[in-house]
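User: Predict the full complex structure for these chains.
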Amino acid sequence: MDKLILGGVEFESRLLTGTGKFSSKDEIPKMLKASESQIITMALRRVNFNNNDENILNYIPQNITLLPNTSGARNAEEAIKIARIAKAAGCGKFIKIEVINDMKYLMPDNAETIKATKVLANEGFIVLPYMTPDLIAGQRLKEAGAAAVMPLGSPIGSNRGIETKAMIEIMIENIDLPIIVDAGIGKPSQAAEAMEMGAAAVLVNTAIACSPNPAEMGKAFAMAVKAGRMAYKAKMAEATKYANASSPLTGFLHNN
Amino acid sequence: MEIILNGEVKKIKTENIYDLVNFLELDRDGVVVLHNDEIVKKELWKKRKLKIKDSVEVLYFVSGG
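Assistant: Here is the predicted structure of the two-chain assembly.
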């Protein structure tokens, strides 16, 4: 059937979610159940001995695939280090590479991301790199062994939607890997838009986590993702400048 | 003795990683330990001796997108 395949692993759901920004971590398992998301992100940090926040893994059911990210990494070397630590911690083979130096827009550094991808893919990781949309960088990521490419729709957490649409469309058309739109998707209609474009999946965190009702919002996103995917598979009619009548105009009242 | 624990100087009485993690009252299953920048597997915590000025990083998973 129409499954999402990442590094040889099959998933029913095309909605990836994140654990960031929930007002209460108890909302996370509820959201996962309602949204049927099978992959969720988390980050690695130093333990704060004065205020020991609970381990996020305690809130994620066993059947969910963990996607640790390398947030905090400013170059390939740091991303590689974080990935290896995450693997040693028993997080599995999946890793979301995130290398960021730009603190204003949090734009990922594609060159460093490609370097990290190459090293980690060689070590057997299933690498999902978060990147600034660019065809050539996407092709380089494929060559480096990425399992998918994750271009941003707009800056992280901005809820601005798919402002990079034209670039992502070119990537979908020309890169033979799943393209997952990550970051910037602020509402279900934008997730549907990504899927209609032919994205293999979307990663949504802020828009779900910051809703007063994350479980409901997760479900809404799941429905939008399914609708968008279905429309893409069914092939949408082309847009035209002028009207094309849906009902017959010829008839008995006029002769032209 | 003094070690560098998560970037800060800390006086400890424990001699290995296992005892340190217990002393800090950390959830053993939930943390990853780096000793002088090297990942130490949980099975080796008891064997891994600490020396003065050693660096120990204790990490865990937190929320993130």
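The longest helix of chain A spans residues 214-234.
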